[in-house]
Automatic annotation (TrEMBL):
<dbReference type="InterPro" id="IPR000525">
    <property type="entry name" value="Initiator_Rep_WH1"/>
</dbReference>
<comment type="similarity">
    <text>Belongs to the initiator RepB protein family.</text>
</comment>
<dbReference type="InterPro" id="IPR036390">
    <property type="entry name" value="WH_DNA-bd_sf"/>
</dbReference>
<dbReference type="InterPro" id="IPR036388">
    <property type="entry name" value="WH-like_DNA-bd_sf"/>
</dbReference>
<dbReference type="Pfam" id="PF01051">
    <property type="entry name" value="Rep3_N"/>
</dbReference>
<protein>
    <submittedName>
        <fullName>Replication initiation protein</fullName>
    </submittedName>
</protein>
<feature type="domain" description="Initiator Rep protein WH1">
    <location>
        <begin position="57"/>
        <end position="199"/>
    </location>
</feature>
<dbReference type="Pfam" id="PF21205">
    <property type="entry name" value="Rep3_C"/>
</dbReference>
């Protein structure tokens, strides 16, 4: 799956098969990784217990390596998600969500017809992603979104979501405030979004967070062939996130932990 990195140098494509790993973004434990060089891979995800859904990445991110455009669409869906759905005659009805495609395009610095093509690729991938949630009475399988229709001449996308997924998405939404969702949408870098989400969890208990370099790469889904030199990782991933998070509640500085000359870990200090 294409991982969009803006303002970065070209990097080799790398993707971790979602069925082989399942770690929340907020868990920095190292895991074994395998290389999947295919541009798009839709591997069935492992089951997630319903009680775990309050962790954002237990439902979505830990199983599914979203591109920047998919994340923007997903965050916009969360922003527009109604708190309740109608249940006439015991049947749940979930009205479609209308997304402003032009707004997403502008925020993503996309241009021309290719912009709509990128959004179409993103929604197609989201439809193909299956959420598998272990509920008390059985296994729920549903697409992340059910359908997406691009309304001609309106610059809008009509998104349908399975009502069965609604209560879990609501729990995900409650992880962030409306202001935080707006901040996430405006980040240009995929990694800035990841850092913001990570700090939003870790900052609840401490302003100082240590993580090994290996665990950081694993958490950000950066493979062995991407940003092989620490200098490049520092400049194009950490540096970009530091620049975009400046002025937010998760503005940060960091120190390097070394063994000899080799950087083996990083200590992040939140400014606020």
């Amino acid at each position: 799956m294409l991982k969009v990195k803006e303002n970065t140098k070209p990097a080799k494509s790398y993707k971790l098969p979602v069925a082989d790993i399942q770690i929340p973004l907020f868990n920095a434990e190292p895991v074994a990784a395998k290389v999947d060089k295919s541009p798009v891979a839709h591997v069935p995800a492992q089951n997630i217990g319903a009680e775990k859904i309050e962790e954002l990445h237990d439902l979505i991110m830990a199983q599914y390596n979203m591109s920047l455009y998919e994340r923007r669409i997903f965050i916009k869906v969360l922003e527009l998600l109604p708190e309740t759905i109608v249940h006439p005659d015991g049947i749940a009805l979930f009205e479609p969500l209308i997304l402003d495609a032009r707004e997403i395009i502008a925020d993503s610095n996309l241009k021309g017809e290719s912009a709509f093509m990128e959004l179409q690729k993103a929604t197609m991938s989201m439809i193909q992603h299956v959420c598998r949630i272990a509920e008390k009475d059985g296994l729920l399988q549903t697409g992340l979104i059910s359908s997406a229709k691009y309304l001609t001449g309106k610059g809008q996308i009509r998104i349908h979501i399975d009502p069965a997924l609604h209560p879990y998405l609501i729990r995900v939404k409650k992880h962030f405030s409306g202001e935080q969702l707006q901040t996430l949408i405006k980040f240009k870098s995929y990694y800035s979004q990841c850092f913001y989400e990570w700090f939003s969890k870790s900052a609840q208990s401490t302003k100082i967070v240590y993580i090994s370099l290996y665990a950081l790469r694993t958490m950000l889904r950066i493979g062995e062939t991407e940003y092989e030199r620490y200098y490049d990782l520092k400049r194009f991933v950490i540096g970009q996130a530091q620049k975009e998070l400046k002025g937010t509640q998760y503005e940060f500085s960091f120190k390097e932990k070394r063994t000899g000359r080799k950087v083996i870990g990083l200590q992040f200090q939140l400014a606020k």
